Amino acid sequence: MKYTKLGNSELSVSRICMGCMGFGNAATGQHSWTVDEAQSREIIKRGLELGINFFDTAIVYQNGTSEQFLGRALRDFAKRDEVVVATKFTPRTQEEIDDGIPGQQHIENYINQSLKNLNMEYVDLYIYHMWDYHTPMEEIMEGLHNIVKAGKARYIGISNCFAWQLAKANFYARERHLTEFGSIQGHYNLIAREEEREMAPFCRDQNIAMTPYSALAGGRLSKRPCETSKRLVEDSYAKFKYDSTAEADGKIIARVAEIADKRGVSMTEVALAWLLTKVTAPVVGATKISHVEGAARAVDFALTDNEINYLEELYVPHALVGVMAQNGKQKAGNVV
Ligand SMILES: NC(=O)c1ccc[n+]([C@@H]2O[C@H](COP(=O)([O-])OP(=O)(O)OC[C@H]3O[C@@H](n4cnc5c(N)ncnc54)[C@H](OP(=O)(O)O)[C@@H]3O)[C@@H](O)[C@H]2O)c1
């Protein structure tokens, strides 16, 4: 495994971040395809053996059970100060808004719950999961600074935002000596490259770490057309994100398979090796031990410049999908 600094922070992270959205109690959460605690523990343990020290979860993943599984596994298989744990909080609920709970209190409540789920005293990276148009940005930045000061989070990151939103928040924080976002978790992979337009150059300029999610397009960049899985069949949210561009994307995926065959590696290695040339640490999901092994191998696999050009050649701009499509529909600067 190789390691790198997470942006301007002191955190040394593995080049692969283990995404934990696929871990959790399938009976209670939003996904039917997640793996149970025993399987999750095996995958986490194997990831640690392979040198992965960076883990990403969220309070909303399977009603907190992803955080719980991760926390228990890390407690049993790792030392707390040798792993980097990231979790995320979502916007205020309508109930919280109706009850007059301000952004600062919302963040305090959510991190307390996440720390309880993880059974940890602090997280290394606390991530604003998606832009909250119903809570003033000032309250979010103050609330995040408060939990850093309290020692509940070492650093903060953001996810699913536009570059202008990250710039606005960080320059607000900088002027007031508050904690700035040090990482962005956006949707970025070989068939979703909209982050290259504004976000990637901004991050390079500011040394903000890019830790993109769905690095394998929910498995589409790892599987041949003949292969399937429980998730490919049941993950309707991912289908909604990728199905409408499947024909054009299929041609890029075919090139991933072609290079994999030529070089004698898996498609996962090719797709991740490409992303590793662009970002700090992709967040990669796994529902099997072999998945995390493939991701770890990608770190030692290098594509030639010609192969990179060949993989990039067919991409055409895509509409934003998933959370970013909703973000795009909101009015800039609108706080209700
Ligand atoms: N911030 C956000 O809004 C956000 C959104 C989504 C995800 N995330 C984070 O990003 C992580 C990764 O996202 P993701 O799960 O959507 O995407 P992903 O990493 O693109 O896809 C993971 C899926 O790829 C398949 N896979 C992985 N390695 C494979 C291999 N070697 N061979 C065949 N298939 C392989 C598995 O699919 P099968 O199970 O089908 O085999 C696995 O579930 C999540 O766990 C979460 O931590 C964040």
Task: Describe the structure using short key phrases.
336 residues, globular, alpha/beta, 43% helix, 10 strands, TIM Barrel, binds NADP nicotinamide-adenine-dinucleotide phosphate
Short description:
This protein is an alpha/beta fold. 43% of the residues lie in helices and 12% in strands. An 8-stranded parallel β-sheet has the order 9-8-7-6-5-4-3-10, with helices on one face. A two-stranded antiparallel ribbon has the order 1-2.
Explain the overall architecture.
By secondary structure, the chain is an alpha/beta fold. The chain has one domain: NADP-dependent oxidoreductase domain (TIM Barrel). The protein has 14 helices and 10 strands. The chain has helices at residues 37-49, 65-77, 94-98, 103-118, 137-149, 163-175, 199-206, 230-234, 236-242, 246-263, 267-276, 289-298, 305-312, 323-329; strands at residues 3-5, 12-14, 17-19, 54-56, 84-89, 123-128, 153-159, 181-185, 209-210, 283-285. The longest helix has 18 residues, at 246-263. It is globular. The mean pLDDT is 95. The structure holds NADP nicotinamide-adenine-dinucleotide phosphate. Residues 19-22, 56, 129, 159-160, 185, 213-219, 222-223, 229, 231-232, 266, 268, 283-287, 290-291, 294, 323 line the site of NADP nicotinamide-adenine-dinucleotide phosphate.
